[in-house]
Amino acid sequence: MSLWNTRAVRWVKDQYGQSHVEPTRRVWPAGVRLAVMVVLFVLVTGLAAGLRSVAGDNPVLSLLFGAVSVLIALTVYAAAVRILEQRPVTELDTTDAGSGLRVGTAAGLGLLAATIALIALFGGYGTEGGVSVGGALTVLGMMAGVSVVEEVLFRGIIFRLVEELTGTRGAMVISGVLFGGLHLVNSGATVWGALAIAIEAGLMLGAVYAATRSLWLPIGLHFGWNFALSGIFGVTVSGNDDQPTGLLHGVLSGPEAITGGGFGPEASIFAILVCTVPTVVFLRIAKRRGRLYTRQQLRSAGTTAAS
Q: Which tops the pLDDT comparison, 179 or 131?
């Protein structure tokens, strides 16, 4: 292994290491860190979107650029936390990565499958055409990048730092509303669809992060849900009607309250009902673990609630 590669590997390990970081200066206030890191990740988000655009429907490029987006997002975030907050990046502890991603992905797949099953039960979902393995692989790479970038931005940065300013409940509401609002830029966006995303996904993923204080489970959950939507069942994701066709070509028909209409199943009342269950469960877990913090508790502790 070359000297450059050795140094690169050592640098990456240092970013994710959980050893104590000796502070060299006063940490900036939460509001300043929030602003700096959001601006930084707007750039990362733009870069990831550009890579997805270049990859298009090519499964090889999609998998490659998806992996690159994941690596860039995680590494930039880890470095920013260690530099700006001068602490180990406990929310990306690699010892939790395997189990968090596996359980989260399985849960996301299961929740979306339950939603589609309920829609189909009322005659709202069917399929047409053949099976596209290449399309599924394209969506796999795309959604890997999307889930990591968005979870780092909305849970790792916005939720976590807003929590320092407002407490856990305020962070859940604000990050959820902003997460839903992000989807208003999609081609088939609707206000109801964005609100549904805020409730079913924003609150659920915030609750999962609050209970675990790890980004791996929310990332897996986000990925499993999104991949199942487009990569398996072949339906519109959050109003994006120009997504590559997945394994199946799904067709939605019937009342929009049941199917979600042009926004896709995420605007279905069934998606909200299905996702409310884990939201409540994880909020109860967070409460039992003493991880629903008030602003006063965080201020008196003099630290973030990342761990």
A: 179
